[in-house]
Fold each of these.
Amino acid sequence: MAMRITPSVLNADLSNLSGEIARIPSADGVHLDVMDNHFVPNMTFGLPVVESIRQRTEAFLDIHLMIANADRWAPAYAEAGAESITFHVEASDAPIRTAREIRAQGARASMALKPATPIEPYADMLGELDMVLLMTVEPGFGGQKVLDLVLPKIRRTRELVKTTGQDIWLQVDGGVSLETIERCAEAGADTFVAGSAVYSAGDPDQMVRDLRERAVEACRH
Ligand code: DX5
Ligand code: ZN
């Protein structure tokens, strides 16, 4: 199974985003955390900043919308040229319509679940998605510890994804590091967000390669 590392720039130098993205050429994409201080108690940046980043980099842009009213805003990020748009199901009244609107713009549609949100109610709509993001921390801040109680949900989601017969990526976000990536990979994740682990490393690009190698190793067992 291909293992993808999509570092989050949340804890990088936010005044120099394109420079920070250029430091991780080995990454499979860059994870951009959009926060509105409503859906989560923190605020980062929005559409104009993502549009500017799009002008500056060819990198695969993996947008994680932690915003209320996701249905209203998600398609605009696809229109801005981002390759993947993730909206939270807890912030969406019409997840199927929103996923279809994202795909209609040519982007990958992805849906995120907070740690306490079960996957089972959404089993029948997985075919509408290109990725499922399972949060391994409560969203809002970098530098938190993985909640191991999410591991069984990663396993159940992997089983549900298998039944679709489609190549739906399974991403985890929050607390991913050299210490924790193995158990997430063993449980069935194939796409990993790592923020502080990558940007606090002396050589962020080497950390990306080390994380990927460890995930690949974990899956061989
Ligand atoms: C948290 C964000 C994450 C965060 C991850 O709500 O969605 O993407 O940046 O940071 P670390 O890897 O430090 O937990
Ligand atoms: Zn995120």
Amino acid sequence: MIIVMKPGATREQIEAVSERLVELGFKTHPIYGQEKTVIGAIGDKKALSSEAIINLPGVEKIVPIMKPYKLVSRELKETPTLVRVGGVPVGGRGLVVMAGPCAVESEEQLLATAQAVKAAGAQILRGGAFKPRTSPYAFQGLEEEGLKMLSRVREEVGLPFVTEAVDTRDVSLVAEYADAIQIGARNMQNFRLLKEAGATGKPILLKRGLAATVEEWLMAAEYILDSGNANVILCERGIRTFETATRFTLDLAAVAVVKENSHLPVVVDPSHGTGSWRLVLPMARAAVAAGADGLLIEVHPDPARALCDGPQSLHPETFDRLMGELAPVALAVGRGLAPAGSLLVKGSLPAGAAGN
Ligand code: PEP
Ligand code: MN
């Protein structure tokens, strides 16, 4: 339910309504708008006799939230949510690019990648220290050593970083180091993990499960908001379909669906979404055109030797070219460009002019 307060309702009135809702067994989430305040009330609506609330001073009306997700819905909060990763706002006018290797392999590899992506205009570094791999025999990540490398490289290069937590047992360790915690596609419905990651208060990058509907994805985000953490960035990374020409099917319509139904920022990962570095370029441009707030892109200094996801990783030079190509697309859809990045100054090379 949404309790809409009258314009000019006082803070005391808002607090009194919240207190009454809590007495009736609801969890409350006040959202202070410029004109009006609304209070999200989550709980059993049968417990809410309208008279108990509607007659309280300052209350304008009570509106039910029709969607199964409540806190993430636009019905509750119309204005877009801005999530800060380190100092970088995600979900505003500026397009945010998060880039880096699939996995942290060594300090040299990470540092070289971080320097290159920063020079090309990326604002956030990515890199997995804990890797969810399909095969138990594949490289599983450097774990805490990898987190330490990410932290040292953050100091040296000056980019905040996002990295994955694959298990509840690692959440507090990852939170000690990371600026944002990634929840991977395979863990999107690991509800204990969602709650625990949410409880750290860190921004959460929530990837869409490979077989999850948009509604299931938003319900997963609801778990994080319900844990008291509204700093969620959604990430479309492709879903399983009958199509085999690409690793996954990048569902860009989902970006538009999410934008319509939720106030949370959404970024697109064309690396996992396509599985092929050549396809990353057009799909990154398409994602920006479709309204994504940012991109998550895998970059490796030597993709052929990458321990993980080499075929979909961009060489730094290709990434630089991509950043140039994104600039006119971002402008065309009315997005401001990265403040300190090189998007503003880079000329775009012709698409497909060079190899990876
Ligand atoms: C990743 O970002 O490297 C990753 C493992 O992603 P996903 O969970 O989307 O497969
Ligand atoms: Mn990867």
